[in-house]
Amino acid sequence: MLETVLLAVGPGDADRSNQLAEAVLEIAKPAGATVVLAHVFTSTEYDEVLDRLDFDRTVDEIDPDAVASRHSTIHDLQAILDEHEIDYEIRGAVGEHGPSIVDLASSAGADRVVVGGRRRSPTGKAVFGSTAQEVLLSAPCPVTFVRSE
User: Fold this and answer.
1) What pLDDT does 120 receive?
2) Where is each UspA domain found (predicted)?
3) Structural domain count, the chain
């Protein structure tokens, strides 16, 4: 039975939040599953977001969950899930995108992971790597890939 769906978003997903939300609704709503909205930041992205969102850096440690909850893509997804009465929680992580998504899926006990991506040539994947490809190969559960239009 499907209980937990992890929807992983990152900096490039703002323009496809509606597509990601539709995919999650198709999976989570019929099962009554809880959605974990997960935003993963590299260290550089995290520092930029802390500055942009005016976090108080004098605090010893800033919780990545709090940072993720203030991100606009998460806000957009929350509104859609609220509209459809889907239970959700928000998680943030700092690290390399692929391994962090896999770690979040494991720690959340996800039964399914949903990730977005774009079409890339085989050479592009070999030279630059692919977060979605890493998640597809390493996740502890099935993965749904949502390709950008």
Assistant:
1) 60
2) 1-147
3) 1
Q: How far lies 141's CA from each of 20, 88, 145, in Å?
A: 18, 19, 13
What is the distance between the alpha carbons of residues 65 and 55, in angstroms, rounded to a whole number?
13
**What CATH number should be reported for the domain holding residue 36?**
3.40.50.620
What is the domain extent for residue 56?
4-147
CA distance 144 to 64: 24
Percent of the chain with pLDDT over 90: 63
Is residue 34 within 8 A of residue 88, CB to CB? The reply is: yes
Q: Give me 43's structure tokens.
A: 């260290």
Q: Which residues contact 101 (CB under 8 A, 6 or more apart)?
A: 6, 8, 38, 40, 93, 113, 115, 131, 135, 139
Asked if residues 101 and 40 have their Cβ atoms less than 8 Å apart, the reply is: yes
Average pLDDT over residues 101-115: 97
Residue 128: what pLDDT? 42
